[in-house]
């Protein structure tokens, strides 16, 4: 039996978390961060004229070129964009992997029913400019795709899967399903808003943040190897105590970018 829906305020907050841009001036570049070379396929995807102007404005804060370069997105890759929201990254993936690649915009059924509307990303999949995009609607934790993937990507949404509106989803199952969906050597990239160290899951609902140590522990427990972190979205000035939509910190949150890899020997 389905649980009662959240209050209207909570629903609107959820919709914003999944689909709305993080506003405000971008955080300063992390101190000591190395310059990252952006491959030609990713650079071309960022400058593609099919992208909405509003998405391009967001690039300065979200650093999609550096993020996709860190993930290793190549032409012909098969990618799942888990909880794609409005499709900001979906569009970039589509052009970066090219016509021989494939992008699965994976929308949990729980989120669609809660919002009571079709996923925003459906419009992208219907656009001939993004013909390699397919939307998958499926109830978590039953993550699955029609073919093995090179990359599973989720941005600012891992904490949501721990929230009550998602069940919460059993992340031990979700992460194992993602492990199965990836090719040997495939990558699982997780971006999220940082909570205070040691806070665990305490702030997933009230602040929309998660302790990065929890993510690392849960994902590696599914068999992944932690390969490293990009610090391109780090913001040391963020005290990690405010809701990510608070005007004092919105658009300037500290975010971790964690890269996990399925061992090449795994099947």
CATH architecture: 3-Layer(aba) Sandwich
Distance between the ends? 35 Å
Task: Give the strand content.
Answer: 15-25%
Radius of gyration: 17 Å
Tell me briefly what this model is.
The protein has 267 residues and is of the alpha/beta class.
Walk me through what this model shows.
There is one protein chain. With 267 residues, the chain is an alpha/beta fold. It has a single domain (8-261), classed as 3-Layer(aba) Sandwich (Rossmann fold). The chain has nine helices and seven strands. The chain has a seven-stranded mixed beta sheet with strand order 3-2-1-4-5-7-6. 45% of the residues are buried. Residues 1-34 have low confidence and may be disordered. This is Methyltransferase. Keywords: Methyltransferase, Signal, Transferase. GO terms for molecular function: methyltransferase activity. InterPro entries: S-AdoMet-dep_MeTrfase_Alr7345, SAM-dependent_MTases_sf.
Topology of this protein?
Blueprint: H1 8-19, H2 40-46, H3 53-62, H4 64-71, E1 78-82, H5 88-97, E2 102-108, H6 109-115, H7 122-126, E3 133-138, E4 149-155, H8 171-181, E5 182-193, H9 212-221, E6 225-230, E7 255-261
Helix pairs in contact: 2-5
């Amino acid at each position: 039996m389905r649980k009662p829906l959240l209050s209207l305020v909570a629903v609107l907050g959820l919709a914003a978390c999944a689909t709305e841009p993080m506003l405000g001036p971008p955080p300063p570049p992390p101190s000591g961060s190395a310059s990252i070379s952006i491959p030609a396929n990713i650079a071309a995807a960022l400058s593609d004229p099919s992208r909405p102007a509003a998405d391009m404005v967001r690039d300065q804060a979200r650093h999609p070129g550096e993020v996709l370069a860190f993930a290793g997105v190549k032409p012909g890759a098969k990618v799942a964009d888990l909880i794609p929201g409005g499709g900001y990254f979906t569009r970039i993936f589509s052009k970066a992997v090219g016509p021989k690649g494939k992008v699965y915009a994976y929308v949990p059924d729980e989120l669609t029913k809660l919002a009571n509307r079709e996923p925003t990303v459906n419009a992208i999949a219907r656009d001939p400019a993004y013909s390699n995009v397919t939307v998958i609607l499926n109830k978590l934790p039953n993550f699955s795709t029609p073919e093995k993937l090179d990359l599973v990507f989720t941005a600012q949404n891992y904490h949501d899967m721990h929230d009550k509106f998602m069940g919460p989803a059993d992340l031990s199952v979700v992460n194992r399903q993602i492990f199965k969906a990836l090719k040997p050597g495939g990558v699982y990239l997780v971006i999220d808003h940082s909570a205070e160290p040691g806070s665990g899951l305490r702030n997933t609902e009230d602040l929309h943040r998660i302790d990065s140590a929890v993510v690392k522990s849960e994902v590696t427990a599914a068999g992944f190897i932690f390969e490293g972190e990009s610090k391109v979205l780090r913001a040391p000035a963020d005290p990690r105590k405010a809701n990510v939509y608070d005007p004092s910190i919105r658009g300037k949150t500290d975010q971790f970018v964690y890269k996990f890899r399925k061992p090449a020997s795994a099947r």
